[in-house]
């Protein structure tokens, strides 16, 4: 009884920004697809493979009569789900028991379509198996893949996607505006700095910037965002500083992957500390997400969960003082938390005079004692007895007041973040101690004198203080793995612990807004408002940052799972109500995050019970929304991981039984359901026992035990609902009772049961169960010979099923409406409905599951309509129905205009539009429902010639699909 919810758009992605010209690659991609069935676009991350693949697919889509579909794999991490993701993109609803990949191949065996499989690199083996199966098992399916690496099949043709070409900034720039890298930068810069354009004054700087970024589109876009506050020369200056630290003075150019990483790291450094934390925590989300999800995952539930952020200084170093970027200092806090000072008052340290700079966090060196400058805020000076010495104490490149020391001269380095200063020597007895600075080891440092107190990790400046006194302590000095000279300290240094960043929901909103503003998050429309998405490259970087703090990733993933569970439970509670279309759309949009939550639960020790609870709570999603295969996949794993006798297991068992029964494996389904019933009774859970009983009855009904099913549902309906029983299953008990009565010829009793169920649904504004009640009413009235009422109920059922996109219900109801039309003598209408129904069933099971009642009724309708119309007229009407989109088909069946997509443009009345004789001939064959290959065979021309004729017809008439051509031809007759 399951159907399919409105799926994420698996057609070509909508472009929200301009596409920079790649004419050469577009042409080469089209040519490769014309002669090869598997083409893989390869190249580094951020080079633009996805955009290019979408453009190539858009250029060739008219050559594929069965369409172009886009398989999004970026949010998928389980290889077992790749065939299901492809089937989902193709709109297939297989309910057989055969392996998913075999079922997929069988369903598309006779189709001519293009499958775009995006982001294959992390699932390369599974994608290779998918491609191989489609290539070997079909003739008309072609595949366009994107991956950082080839899939490794012999049939594979590669198209390397290179970075955008950049002119020599010191050469002739007279034709520079023709370079796409410069065009991309100018376009994105103008979006944040209105009025920006390429001029003679800035052309060389823009070219130098784009060359510095290796022509990588993502790196260019991230840099262009900074034009809001910087000009091109400032931008280039700061970028050069960032790269100078990365190369450590090497004249060799950066590898492209490091170029992109540097650009991403720079964008990260320019974020505030809350934005960095939200970026990191959002990286556990797969695919898109809404603001509520972001707040649930990123906000701290209790002060104990507050993050110490940033976790360390192992990110790329910031520029030197003169080019210091406005990055947050180590003490930067969430909104409402005052910034910490590096020193809380003067620090006194006896000993020899000391001279040298004292920067922290990627600056030139480290003074022995740092003044209190954090994030540009100045603390008091430090005074030390002895002869005068002066040094600066910047933190994160910001300069504070001078510090004064007295005593004989001492020189010492301060290697922080891998920056090396001069040697330092102090006197006194040897003290050796470890210095856990980013856990990287450098040469020893010797300190002497009284106790030295300091926080352990430098960078975040967080953690308990370390106190050393007396005898030798040796410790490494450098940070980030770069080696510095020996450091010696004498006296006492006190650095305070910086409070952690505490994220509240309001802080998350502010951080999300900042990340959107910095182009870290993409903003896109969703079924219930605005949604957001991290690009894969930025997600991976955020995940790296998250993993630097022990326990942060697990905590974030647990919050994500808990939120998905709360959302699923809220959707289940509201399911028997008026908001079903919105619920199914939301869960489809959250599909990747539901998968991530389930995977976390089933791969993390101690979380299996929560995973089983989530999988069981989604029973209505798996069953009503056409995802029985995936639901069974998760439930099988969850039941194996949680064998304990709990309520979650009882529910998981009956849901698994229901989904198994949908694949016609009735014995296994019956075992699951009876086990669930026994466990629920043992636990005293009457609601789960009632749910299990429903499944047992359904298996009897569809297992041809009609008398047993009738007795079963008469008993459960007479008993009435039990406390806690879901009203959907209460209503379905009545639907199945009416079904059994109808099959046994008791139409009057069936109508009575349906009318009672209808009142229940109408009280709650429910649509899904109501659509099945209406269909059963239509069947019962058909048996009674009241075709007027039967047609009225069937049409209303179809309208509701279309509203929740219940594809299986749509197919069943179209068959019923065809029977009604034959009974009315409207044979042409019946033939069109049969053609449309056959096309919908092809996405489910072309054999209608082998059900005798379904196949015999369809065969009888075809024979009667064929005799009345004649075979040729019947075939023509049947093809016309098969060529309609689902929306057009439903509109035709309801005998009203298609409501949910723009109406087709009216036939052209412009007498200036003229088709050639051959084009007219081709248009007529299109109107008969022939595909391009069939047209080519009929006219004895090449298939590509036929495709060219169809493209020219569409262009001349201003149409976008073949059904519009058919309507135009009909209007001309």
Assembly context of the chains: single chain
Q: Total number of β-strand segments?
A: 15
What number is the mean pLDDT?
77
**Gyration radius, in Å:** 34 Å
The best one-word shape is globular
How many helices? The count is 37
* CA-CA gap between termini: 42 Å
Structural class: alpha/beta
Residue fraction in strands = 5-15%
* Largest sheet: spatial strand order: 2-3-4-1-5
Largest sheet: 5 strands, parallel
Helix content: 40-55%
Low-confidence stretches: 1-9, 245-254, 302-306, 312-498, 898-912
Task: Summarize it.
This protein has 37 helices and 15 strands.
Question: How would you describe this protein?
Answer:
The protein starts with 22 loop residues before the first helix and ends with a helix. It is α/β, with parallel strands linked by helices and 973 residues long.
Defining key terms:
15 strands, 5-stranded parallel β-sheet, alpha/beta, 973 residues, disordered N terminus
Question: What's the arrangement of secondary structure elements?
Answer:
Blueprint: H1 23-35, E1 38-42, H2 49-60, E2 68-72, H3 82-89, H4 100-107, E3 113-118, H5 124-137, E4 141-147, E5 156-160, H6 180-192, H7 200-212, H8 217-224, H9 232-247, H10 256-269, H11 273-282, E6 289-290, H12 291-298, E7 353-354, E8 382-383, E9 390-391, E10 403-404, E11 409-410, E12 452-455, E13 465-468, H13 505-517, E14 521-526, E15 529-534, H14 536-546, H15 552-574, H16 580-589, H17 591-603, H18 608-617, H19 619-624, H20 628-641, H21 647-662, H22 666-683, H23 686-702, H24 706-719, H25 727-743, H26 747-764, H27 768-784, H28 787-803, H29 807-824, H30 827-842, H31 852-869, H32 871-882, H33 886-894, H34 917-927, H35 932-939, H36 943-957, H37 962-972
Parallel strand pairs: 1-4, 1-5, 2-3, 3-4, 7-11, 8-10
Antiparallel strand pairs: 6-15, 9-10, 12-13, 14-15
């Amino acid at each position: 009884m399951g159907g399919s919810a409105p799926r994420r758009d698996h057609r070509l992605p909508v472009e929200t920004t301009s596409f920079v010209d790649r004419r050469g690659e577009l042409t080469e991609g089209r040519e490769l697809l014309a002669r090869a069935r598997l083409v893989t676009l390869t190249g580094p991350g951020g080079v633009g493979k996805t955009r290019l693949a979408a453009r190539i697919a858009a250029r060739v889509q008219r050559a594929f009569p069965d369409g172009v579909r886009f398989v999004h794999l970026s949010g998928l991490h389980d290889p077992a789900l790749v065939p299901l993701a492809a089937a989902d993109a193709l709109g297939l609803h297989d309910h057989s028991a055969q392996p998913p990949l075999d079922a997929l191949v069988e369903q598309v065996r006779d189709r001519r379509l293009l499958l775009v499989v995006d982001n294959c690199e992390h699932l390369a083996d599974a994608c290779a198996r998918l491609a191989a199966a489609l290539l070997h098992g079909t003739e008309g399916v072609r595949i366009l893949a994107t991956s950082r690496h080839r899939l490794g099949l012999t049939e594979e043709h590669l198209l390397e996607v290179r970075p955008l070409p950049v002119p020599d900034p010191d050469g002739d720039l007279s034709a520079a505006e023709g370079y796409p890298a410069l065009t991309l930068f100018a376009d994105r810069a103008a979006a944040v700095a209105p009025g920006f354009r390429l001029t003679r004054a800035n052309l060389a700087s823009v070219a130098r910037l784009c060359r510095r970024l290796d022509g990588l589109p993502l790196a260019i876009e991230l840099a262009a965002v900074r034009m809001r506050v910087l000009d091109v020369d400032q931008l280039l200056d700061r970028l050069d500083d960032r790269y100078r630290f990365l190369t450590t003075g090497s004249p060799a150019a950066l590898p492209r992957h490091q170029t992109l990483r540097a650009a991403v790291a720079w964008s990260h450094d320019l974020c505030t500390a809350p934005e960095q934390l939200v970026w990191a925590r959002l990286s556990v989300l797969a695919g898109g997400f809404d603001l509520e999800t972001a707040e649930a995952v990123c906000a701290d539930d209790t002060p104990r969960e507050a993050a110490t952020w940033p976790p360390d200084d192992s990110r790329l170093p910031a520029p030197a003082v003169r080019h210091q970027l406005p990055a947050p200092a180590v003490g930067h806090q969430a909104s409402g938390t005052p910034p910490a000072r590096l020193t809380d008052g003067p620090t006194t340290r006896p000993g020899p005079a000391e001279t040298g700079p004292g920067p922290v966090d990627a600056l030139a060196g480290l003074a022995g004692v740092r003044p209190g400058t954090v994030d540009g805020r100045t603390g008091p000076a430090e005074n030390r007895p002895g002869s005068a010495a002066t040094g600066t104490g910047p933190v994160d490149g910001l300069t504070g007041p001078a510090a004064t020391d007295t005593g004989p001269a001492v020189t010492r380095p301060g290697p922080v973040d891998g920056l090396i200063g001069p040697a330092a020597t102090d006197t006194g007895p040897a003290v050796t101690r470890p210095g856990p600075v980013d856990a990287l080891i450098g040469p020893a440092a010797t300190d002497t004198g009284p106790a030295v107190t300091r926080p352990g990790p430098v960078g975040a400046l967080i953690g308990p203080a370390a106190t050393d006194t007396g005898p030798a302590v040796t410790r490494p000095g450098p940070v980030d793995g770069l080696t510095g000279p020996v450091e010696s300290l004498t006296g006492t240094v006190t650095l305070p612990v910086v409070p952690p960043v505490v994220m509240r929901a309001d802080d998350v909103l502010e951080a999300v807004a900042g990340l959107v503003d910095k182009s870290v998050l993409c903003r896109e429309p969703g079924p219930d408002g605005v949604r957001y998405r991290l690009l894969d490259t930025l997600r991976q970087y955020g995940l790296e940052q998250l993993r630097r703090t022990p326990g942060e990733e697990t905590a974030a993933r647990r919050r994500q799972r808990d939120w998905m569970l709360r959302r699923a439970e809220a959707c289940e509670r509201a399911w028997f109500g008026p908001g079903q279309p919105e619920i199914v759309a939301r869960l489809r949009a959250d599909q990747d995050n539901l998968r991530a939550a389930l995977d976390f639960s089933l791969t993390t020790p101690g979380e299996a019970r929560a995973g089983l609870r989530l999988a069981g709570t989604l029973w209505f999603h798996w069953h009503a929304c056409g995802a029985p295969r995936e639901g069974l996949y998760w439930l099988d794993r969850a039941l194996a991981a949680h064998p304990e006798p709990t309520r979650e297991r009882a529910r998981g068992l009956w849901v698994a039984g229901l989904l198994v029964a949908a694949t016609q494996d009735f014995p296994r389904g019956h075992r699951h359901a009876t086990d669930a019933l026994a466990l629920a009774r043992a636990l005293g859970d009457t609601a789960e026992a009632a749910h299990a009983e429903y499944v047992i009855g359904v298996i009897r009904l569809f297992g041809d035990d009609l008398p047993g099913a009738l007795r079963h549902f008469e008993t459960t309906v007479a008993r009435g609902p039990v406390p806690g029983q879901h009203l959907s299953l209460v209503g379905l008990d009545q639907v199945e009772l009416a079904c059994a009565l109808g099959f046994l010829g008791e139409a009057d009793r069936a109508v009575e049961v349906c009318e009672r169920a209808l009142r229940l649904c109408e009280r709650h504004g429910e649509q899904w169960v109501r659509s099945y009640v209406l269909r059963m009413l239509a069947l019962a009235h058909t048996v009674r010979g009241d075709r007027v009422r039967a047609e009225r109920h069937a049409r209303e059922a179809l309208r509701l099923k279309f509203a929740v996109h219940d594809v299986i219900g749509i197919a069943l109801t179209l068959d019923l409406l065809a029977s009604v039309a034959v009974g009315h003598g409207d044979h042409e209408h019946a033939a069109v409905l049969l053609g449309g129904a056959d096309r919908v069933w092809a996405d489910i099971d072309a054999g209608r599951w082998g059900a005798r009642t379904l196949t015999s009724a369809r065969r009888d309708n075809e024979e009667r309509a064929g005799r009345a119309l004649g075979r040729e007229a019947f075939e023509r009407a049947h093809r016309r129905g098969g060529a309609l989109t689902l929306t057009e088909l439903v509109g035709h069946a309801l005998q009203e205009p298609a409501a949910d997509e723009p109406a087709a443009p009216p036939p052209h009345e412009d007498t200036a539009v003229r088709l050639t004789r051959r084009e007219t001939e081709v248009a007529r064959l299109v109107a008969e429902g022939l595909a391009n290959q069939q047209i080519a065979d009929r006219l004895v021309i090449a298939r590509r010639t036929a495709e060219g004729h169809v493209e020219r017809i569409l262009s001349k008439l201003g149409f976008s699909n073949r059904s519009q051509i058919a309507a135009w031809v009909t209007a001309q007759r």
